[in-house]
Specification:
Structural class: mainly alpha
Strand content: under 5%
Helix content: over 70%
Distance between the termini: 35 Å
Strand order of the largest sheet: 1-2
Number of helices: 9
Amino acid sequence: VVPLVADFLLPGNLTDLISQSSVTGGAGAYLNPFMNGDRPYTFIEIFSQLAWGFGYCGMPHVLVRFMAGKNEKELKKSWAIAIVWDLLSLTAAFAIAVILGETGAASSESVFIEMIRKVFTSELALPFIGGLFLCGILAAIMSTADSQLLVTASAVSEDLYHSFIKKDADTEEILKVSRITVIVIAV
């Protein structure tokens, strides 16, 4: 929603900004998947980007979400939702980069916050809506953080404690180790 609102509220629209782009290689560089600015991608660049993209699917905090599925039918639905969401979010990220890149760039770590600031502190200021979008950032951070905590706790309690330290540990003891791990890692 934020890039769409920005496209309407900020000066110029996405199409105009792409056509007026000052990026190396011109406007075509934004839309050409085979060019890195004014030159073709090298094998190493292609390999690195594919590794990063496909590697996301194997990240522990992502896999934990799929492992929590109740059955195979739910897993298939989750897979489809995840693919659609990734396509939407990456397209929105592209749009934000283009819009902000031409209207006063922000650092890559704060680009979404900068977009919200520019859109929701204009004459049509809607600070409450801007606050909701900022809450979305915190929700995403918390979701990833809790998944990382669960993966870490599971690895310590099951893979280390139960497998190597105390093989005859009961469920209650493993749960206790898991909880202590969460507290220690969180602190």
